[in-house]
Design a protein that fits this description.
heterodimer; A: 227 residues; mainly alpha; 7 helices; B: 253 residues; 10 helices; elongated
Chain lengths: 227, 253
Amino acid sequence: MPIGRGLRTLSISTVAAMGVALGLVFFYAPIEAEEGFLQKIFYLHVPLAIVSLCGFVLGGLMAIAHLRTRDQRWDLRSYVTIHMSLILGVVVLLTGAIWARGSWGHWWVWSEPTLVSFLIVMLLYATYQPLRFAIEDPERQARYASVFAITAGAFVPMNFLAVRLSSSYLHPRVLGSSSNLPPPMALTFGVSLGAMALLFATLCSYELAAKRTRILLKSSSRILGYR
Amino acid sequence: MSAVAPDTHLPATGGARVPPPAPRSKPPGTLVVVAALLRKELLVELRTLESVPGMSLFAVSTFVVFHFALNRSSVDGDLAAGVLWVTLLFAAMLGVNRLFVADAEQGGFDGFLLAPVDRSAMLAAKVLALLAYLIVLELVAVPAFGLLLLGPSLGQALPGLLAVLVLADIGIAVIGTLIAALAVRTRARDLLGPLLALPLLVPVVIGGARASSPLLSIVHPGGLQLRWLGTLGLYDLVFGLIAYAVFDFLLED
């Protein structure tokens, strides 16, 4: 398969989906009664958090595929997925802090279990790259990174369970359960989620294409005798 | 890993002068291997005393540090549970960091891989060894905590605390062994071990601290809450299975 096939289609549909999502967020979704305009950050923060967490778990599943098939391409996919999830995760923490500051007056609140769990997950995944690049042998690097990705992928739901149990009281919030949202908000949320998922897929495809190109370039220059 | 049948024919390469292979019984069962490896681990620890005394001393020193850092001569409730679990966790990290160092530096991995035995045996033996270290650590640290810092008497809290400690120790031992094996053959392993293990062990700290806080409380003494024991048990089960599934891949070269 040629490297980078379908990137253009994917990019165009991502831009279109993001445009529709932003249009819905600003012009269609009603202003929330209690939090006002600030609540709009919900349509950025929560879909990004969901996509990023799914990315972490997906990275674990790809790592299982790598260990089962010994195909290095699965390791590359797992690496790229986790890398992109980490980047989106930083945005999640920033938007979460802004939201918390706006609605509760503090940059950080410990009583919001989802945000706390997310921080713990981020702290764990922040060690993925230091671990990976502290191993020289490429084959062992891939294997160890996969073992980490599987363990950490299973840790994500376990951690959410434990942190949620530990917080006995909850702030009033719109977060999380989209089932009790009024229909216009639920629609906007759904479209935003789809757009963020597309954005994630596009970013992953770009990084994957770049990495594959670099690998190809290296191997061909070795064949041609360049250094 | 098939057993060599005793009456297998030798290949006919002028085999007359080749001495017949020693009659081999079937390869040892996993339990025998685990017992042998565990015996080796404990023997090495007894002879070198590299981990357990250091861990225990570290725990007692940490209680002294907490006394001055908190400016309290006795703690109870949430604070007591926090001090106890932070101390135990960090002391455990010392043992985790040293767990595979001898195997990596002195050829223990190579020797083990040459033996025709199940590789999961090493996981089981290391988990049990680390569990033993943790138990000895707590035999020192928990009475020292009761003596130095704890406000209410340790006696009434002890039965409940024992259950929490056992469940949490299993989780720490499993994750600690997995992380130690993951980190030991990297550059900067002393740094990576705790960095990887601390976030992974946050659920253990949550379960352990929340379960022991009412046991150590003067104002609102309470019994053992089953949901924390359940959380710890679930954690042990999930990560026990995961460690069993992925550990073999760490031992391939």
